[in-house]
Write a structure and sequence with these properties.
This protein starts with a helix and ends with a helix. Helix 3 packs across helix 5 and helix 12 runs antiparallel to helix 13. The chain is elongated, with a radius of gyration of 21 Å. By secondary structure, it is an all-alpha fold. It contains 13 helices and no strands. The protein is 58% helix and 0% strand.
């Protein structure tokens, strides 16, 4: 009987937690949702209309702001309008990913440039310790990688696993990003928490071109 009571309590607690999670995922006022939709699929007038109807420009809907949504979608017009109207360019989502991180991860070079030009923190980290450069390198957004490096991104910033952007790119066999990072003077011999270099991961994946590029730069 006690075991059944405990089991019932645990199930009840789990359902309650799921209900809270579902509420959080669907959070956001009607005005906030209107602004997010305008940011994603509309233009500057749609953003202005949403704001005129009482939308809070920095409200989070489903964990992120309208600016985050616009930047990730690559909607340059609404990204620019939101910045013009005072959106916080560094306000992260629930995983501490900034609008710049989201744009870099999805290869949205035009919104990446716009955010950097308006004060986005180029080395802001998420909850895994990853920067926008890590995100761009991992998904082989080489143009974003090169741009971020040209604007002062730290090529050797490490995440919570001790990985640099070069570790991420090499582990995935991302040739273009590996090249961009090495051209940007990323250190090929930083070891992660397991003692592995980017070259070690490239070898594990048998990524011949990555291996050759890393070795040419003194990778061990």
């Amino acid at each position: 009987m006690v075991r059944q009571i405990v089991r019932g309590s645990l199930i009840g607690a789990s359902l309650f937690s799921l209900a809270i999670f579902a509420t959080a995922c669907n959070s956001g006022s009607p005005q906030g949702k209107m602004l997010e939709q305008a940011a994603l699929t509309g233009g500057a007038p749609d953003v202005d209309n949403a704001l005129a109807n009482g939308s809070n420009i920095n409200e989070k809907v489903k964990g992120h702001t309208a600016l985050y949504a616009a930047a990730k979608a690559g909607n340059r017009e609404t990204t620019a309008e939101l910045i013009k109207k005072g959106a916080d360019v560094n306000l992260p989502d629930g995983d501490l990913e900034s609008p710049l991180y989201a744009a870099a991860e999805d290869g949205q070079i035009e919104t990446v440039k716009l955010l950097v030009e308006h004060g986005a923190k180029i080395d802001q980290v998420n909850d895994d310790g990853c920067t926008p450069l890590h995100a761009a390198a991992d998904d082989n957004r080489a143009e974003c990688v090169a741009y971020l490096l040209s604007k002062g991104a730290n090529p050797d910033s490490i995440d919570h696993d001790g990985w640099t952007a070069l570790h991420h790119a090499a582990q995935e066999g991302q040739n273009e990003s590996v090249k961009a990072l090495l051209d940007g003077h990323a250190n090929p011999n930083i070891r992660d928490k397991k003692g592995k270099t980017p070259l070690a991961y490239a070898r594990e994946g048998n990524y011949g071109e990555c291996i050759n590029m890393l070795k040419a730069k003194g990778g061990e």
